[in-house]
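INFO  loader      accepted 1 record
INFO  loader      residues=269
INFO  predictor   begin
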Amino acid sequence: MRVGQARSVVEYIQIVSEIRSRWRVVGASQDEELWYRGVRSASYRLLPGAYRQAGCDDVTLFAYFQQIAPAYVERPPRTDWEWYFLAQHFGLPTRLLDWTLSPLAALYFAVCDNENSARVPAVWMIDAGSLNLVTIGCDELVAPRGKAEFSKHWLPWEASDSVGSCVFEFEGQRCSCELPMAILPFQGERRIAAQQGMFTIHGRSRVPLEKLLVRARDPAQRRVAKIVFPHADRSVLLRELRELGVRKSSMFPELASVAEDLIADFTDS
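INFO  predictor   done
INFO  writer      dumping tokens
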């Protein structure tokens, strides 16, 4: 796994470009499937919230969420997947892991919290097509749709340890929801669109995603990298991002974010 170090936005983009070029050379797939995930600490593994919390019964949590949430939303979601994305959006521990198509958006999420200066922020980078090739045998991204389709088997009540076998038949093929896969989210939510959001959905396996890619049999499919910022000034990185148009209101398009950006622009706070 490639690990790079950067101090500035310019250095970061240079490293991203180098990795993109290297992956383009060693593999056949195109780089439009490169995804990024900013984390506040380089020690964080690529595991979803439901698997980071010990003893988390995500099936029960989600069932209660579906019962209670309709009183708080203007339009209840129409499908199980829309419900699941909504639960992730409001912080419920799920098997979803957030990604973005934008390396700058990922860097923003890595450094926007300045509360703990001892943590070293980082950005993870994967080729989503390579991930799916390793885990489900197909380098295409999966778009969740209706109930009678492939991706439904990764929903929590289908992939739960209590269900039994995670092997299923689809279009005459023997498949498994054991490992994670990259999916295309429903784009009806403004934040997902603004953040160019993508997701991985994790099955039964609690092995961190980066370990799965590092262990891929084909070296060309080991497309995972981490860029860390051990010596960077986060306030400088945030200023550089603001100068490039990446700020809170562009990530969270709502009036509260606009007000925060205006305060940052016109006061010393």
